[in-house]
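User: Hey, my collaborator sent me this sequence without any context and asked if I could get a structure. I don't really work with proteins. Can you help?
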Amino acid sequence: MRLIIVTFLFLTVSIRISAQTDSLYLWPNAVPGEPGPKKPPVPTTLEDGSIRVIEVTNPFLAVFEPDTKEKNGKAIIVCPGGAYVRLAVHKEGYSTAEWLTKLGYTVFVLHYRVPNKRDGAFQDLQRSLRIIRQEAKVYGIDPGKVGAIGFSAGAHLVARAGMSELPERYPSQDVSDKQSGTPDRMMIIYPAYLDEGSNHSLTPGLKATPNTVDTFIFQTMDDGSARSSFALATALRDAKANVELHMLAKGGHGYGMSAGNKAAETWPKLLEAWLREHM
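Assistant: No problem. I've predicted the 3D structure and written it out in structure-token form, which is a compact way to encode the shape of the chain:
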């Protein structure tokens, strides 16, 4: 079933990103578990001019396609962070998308449900992965090469999609739901909420196995959530899964790709090299 593709506007705030081509809404009918009707997303503008979204009830994917000559036939979903109460769509979403399209990837920035809807967000990511695979021919991508990158809460969301012991269930919507809801690669950037097991071990409900997909992790030691990276990397290592961990001394949290922050300038270079080898 061909999904309807629509143009995306944030209420009266028009976000014009040169590389954005379409928006894909995830749920053709009622959004599972949502008590109210679908509404437009609610944005807020920070002092630096960047946009955050503080409410999403009708989840969607903002689509970014690379130039034809650069296109590599692979896709990446971007999950911005924001503590599950907001989405840092500019700093961690659109900026990342524009960078990845220059590397040849077709990119989908996920606007998952917020605030405080973790299981709904998990459904949104699973549904996104299935839709992208179903629509692979439309976007000229390989359905077996669909990775996911997440920041902070978005990184936790990606880990859930790749490692959850009990996948969230929702009523089948259409033929897309026959596709896999697991990413082919995981890219975990300054994650949170992954060390909630005993003695800061991996959060219960997540399981590392030898078949867990190849995973890239980046964080800094001065990040209050740094133990999340150690918990995830240790669990993957012990399971003999393929994992690469990078920890810098300083950088804080939530820096995205901000110029002037060493961590923000370092992780894209490391990830680009990792992607060439692993995806």
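In plain terms: Residues 1-17 have pLDDT under 50 and may be disordered. You can pass these tokens on to your collaborator as they are.
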